[in-house]
Amino acid sequence: MSDGLHFNETLYPGVQVSYTCDEILYQEKTEHQDLVLFSNPVFGKVLMLDGVTQVTTADEFIYHEMMSHVPILAHGAARDVLIVGGGDCGLAEEVLKHASVDKLVQVEIDGSVVDFSREHFGDFNQGVLDDPRFELVIADGIKFSAETERRFDVVIVDSTDPHGPGAVLFSEAFYRNIHRLLTPGGVLVTQNGVPFLQKQELVTSIERFSRIFKDAAAYVAAIPTYFGGHMALGWASDNPDLRRQVVSVLEERFRAADFTTQYYTPDVHAAAFALPRFILDAVEEG
Ligand code: SAM
Fold this sequence. Notes:
This protein is α/β, with parallel strands linked by helices. The protein has helices at about 60-75, 90-95, 110-120, 120-125, 140-145, 170-180, 195-210, 245-255, 265-270, 275-285; strands at about 5-10, 15-20, 25-30, 35-40, 45-50, 50-55, 80-85, 105-110, 135-140, 150-160, 180-190, 215-220, 230-235. It is built from ten helices and 13 strands. A seven-stranded mixed beta sheet has the order 9-8-7-10-11-13-12, with helices on both faces. The protein has a four-stranded antiparallel beta sheet with strand order 3-4-5-6, with no helix packed on it. Strand 10 (about 150-160), helix 6 and strand 11 (about 180-190) form a beta-alpha-beta unit. Helix 1 (about 60-75) runs parallel beside helix 2, helix 5 crosses helix 6 and helix 7 runs parallel beside helix 10 (about 275-285). The structure holds S-adenosylmethionine (SAM). S-adenosylmethionine binds near residues 85, 88, 110 and 191.
């Protein structure tokens, strides 16, 4: 919703987040969703899809670093990585910082989000589309995951919320497809909303993970853009040891990876799995 001077996010009943808008930079009704990019004095460039904030230039680093470096460094030997969604390509940029990753496939339903991001988000997705390890597939993630014969060590679901085209990416059928295409001991990470406001989303995903994977869990990060406190990132693997990596091992791997971060540290990684009681309750309910 916009009055020209503000954009209001109405994702949650009873709460409305209002961003002042300095300038509308781009607006398009794509084949799949309503896309708008505007500038805000605090968040920089803000991308909304169907009225829901997706990414901002000011704090994308928190979300993208925690979605990528946590599973890749916990795994320790990830060569093949799959991103589902992630149209702005900020997550891809972080994954490709790992020289150990040989191949990154990104399956995004909406090619116009990628085209648009190439033009407007060069500040954080520089070089991704020209990296020979990167392969972009424009397709629905549920269809790709049902049909592909490829296998991946790490799968990251950078989806919209469970409404519109993103809804299928929270289904049990989709999680079963991902389980099938993970290599033994591989890991799935998902964006799972803000538990203070979207508790049921986390409960439902954990319930579904638990029916399929040996280990179903969540970790958290505080991302100002995703209003309401901690954001939960879902975690599912058949290797329960992966999320219990000791800090000294993570430190060694992070040092070897040899790049800098703005949010991720091995201590933050380990601590992110320590859940506040109300979030742990949601996970245990699931
Ligand atoms: N970080 C954001 C958040 O937490 O709100 C989400 C990032 S945004 C890049 C999510 C992307 O998922 C969008 O580009 C959207 O087009 C894509 N997407 C939605 N449904 C999809 C589907 N079924 N298959 C593949 N991509 C999908």
